[in-house]
Amino acid sequence: MEPTFTFSPTLSKRERYEQFLSEYTVFIDGEDDWTTALANTAAALHDAFGFFWVGFYLVHDADWLHLGPFQGSVACSRIKRGRGVCGTAWAEARTLIVPDVDAFPGHIACSSLSRSEIVVPMLQDGTVIGVLDIDSDRLADFDDIDRAGLEPVLHHLLQTPASSALPRTCQQP
Fold first, then answer.
1. What are the distances in angstroms from CA 136 to CA 1, 81, 108, 153?
2. What separation in angstroms does the CA of 102 have from each of 31, 64, 110, 116?
3. Residue 173's CB: how many other CB atoms inside 10 A?
C-alpha cells in the first residue's frame, strides 16, 4: 500500500513531521536500491510538505558534491566542498538553516526564486556521504522543527538495505 503523505490541517508542523516519519519508514523499509531510495525520499518530502525544491547532492570525491535525485526545477550539477550552503554543510558536517539565502556568504543561486534553505548532511560512520538540500521560495521558511523532523528521516534512510550498497562515488577516499 502506498503512503498518502497528506496531513490534517489541524496538525502542527512537528506533528506533520512525526506523521510523515511513521508513513515514510513503512514506505522505505526494505528498499535495496540506493537511487530508488533517494528518488522516493525526495518525491515524498516534496509532495508531503510542498517544498519548492528537494534533492540530494552526493559526495563524488574529496572535493565535489554531484547532483543526485531531486524534485523541482533544474539545479546546479556540482558544488565544491565548502562553497554555498550545501558545500558548507558538508564541510562542517552539520545542518544549516538559512533564513535568507541572499545574506549567506557565497550562496550558489541555482534558482533566483529560492529565498531560504535547509541543508542536512547524510552521515554514515561519521563521514558525510551527501546532503539533503531543501529550498523555499519564502524567506525564513525553515527552523529547528524542520531540522528535528528531517534529521530522523535521513537517519532512517541510511538504515535501509540500500545504504549498504552505496556506490563508490558516494564515499570519500
1. 30, 22, 14, 19
2. 38, 22, 12, 8
3. 6
pTM of the model: 0.92
Nine cell digits for residue 38: 533517494
Per-residue pLDDT of 93-123, as tens digits, reads: 999 999 999 999 877 777 778 999 999 999 9
Q: Which amino acid is at 80?
A: K
> DSSP readout, 60-74?
-SSSEEEEEEEESS-
CA 115 to chain centre: 16
In sequence order, the 6+-apart residues with CB closer than 8 A to the CB of 57 are 65, 66, 67, 68, 79, 86, 90, 130, 131, 133
Q: Shortest CA distance to 172 belongs to which of 113, 91, 98, 102?
A: 91
From residue 156, alpha-carbon distances to 64, 75, 80, 149, 164 in Å are: 25, 26, 27, 12, 13
Q: Is 158 helix (H, G, I), strand (E, B) or coil?
A: coil
Kindly write down the DSSP assignment for every residue of 64-104, as one continuous string.
EEEEEEEESS---SEEETTSHHHHHHHHHTS-EEES-GGGS
φ, ψ at 150 (rounded to 5°) = -85, -35
